[in-house]
Structure formats: C-alpha cells, structure tokens
Amino acid sequence: MGLTISSIFGRLFGKKQMRILMVGLDAAGKTTILYKLKLGEIVTTIPTIGFNVETVEYKNISFTVWDVGGQDKIRPLWRHYFQNTQGLIFVVDSNDRERVAESAEELSKMVGI
C-alpha cells in the first residue's frame, strides 16, 4: 500500500527526466544556447569537438541536453545520438543566410525526410 501511494505521488509530483538532442551546423550557436539555459548568462565558447552534456532544470523537469558538434565530419554521427531522445533542437544561425539551405538539407537528413 505504501509503495503504491509512493509510486502515485512520484508520478504526479516527481521530477520528470527528458533527454534532448541539440544539433545544427558549426558556429550556429548551440553551445551558447546551452550555457545560457544552464547558467542564465552568455559565456565565451570554443568550437565543440565531440559533444557537451548538461542538465537543465525547469519546474519539475530535468532536461539532459546533448550539444553535438556541427562540423561536416561530425554530422554523420548525429543519428547515433538521436536514439532514446524525447526532443530535438535544431539550431540555425538566421544571420548566416548563405548556410540556411545547408541547414535545411542537414535537418532533412537527420529526420529522414
């Protein structure tokens, strides 16, 4: 009985876990966004080789955000991070108009369109 009440209470009021994948072309601003969400401020970043993982808390949800590098040699690896995620953030630098079409192409590859 106690276990049942505890289980119900946990589902109603417990912290939910969400795994989020954040990808986009290199220099799109993924890492800047991640640390703005995590720390509440803009920090100086360097190009991501591989990935960054941070936990961001919001209300009763704990988001584990995977920020994966966007260099063209890393992009084929994105799909390996996509499994078991509950959300995808695809970052596009709207100021870099010359690369918007490239962003659209990479997003299409990512989601299989």
UniProtKB/TrEMBL annotation:
The keyword Phosphoprotein belongs to this UniProt entry's keyword annotation: no
Binding positions for Mg(2+) per the UniProt entry: 31, 48
Keywords: ER-Golgi transport, Golgi apparatus, GTP-binding, Lipoprotein, Magnesium, Metal-binding, Myristate, Nucleotide-binding, Protein transport, Transport
Alphabetized GO MF terms: GTP binding; GTPase activity; metal ion binding
Superkingdom classification of source: Eukaryota
Cellular localisation: Golgi apparatus
Pfam families: Arf (PF00025)
InterPro entries with a match to the protein in the record: P-loop_NTPase, Small_GTP-bd, Small_GTPase_ARF, Small_GTPase_ARF/SAR
Residues given in the record as GTP binding sites: 24-31, 70
GO cellular component terms listed in the entry, alphabetical order: Golgi apparatus
SMART domains: ARF
Swiss-Prot/TrEMBL GO biological process terms: protein transport; vesicle-mediated transport
PANTHER family referenced in this protein's UniProt entry, alphabetically: ADP RIBOSYLATION FACTOR-RELATED
Membership in a protein family: Belongs to the small GTPase superfamily. Arf family.
Protein name: ADP-ribosylation factor 4-like
Gene source species: Seriola lalandi dorsalis
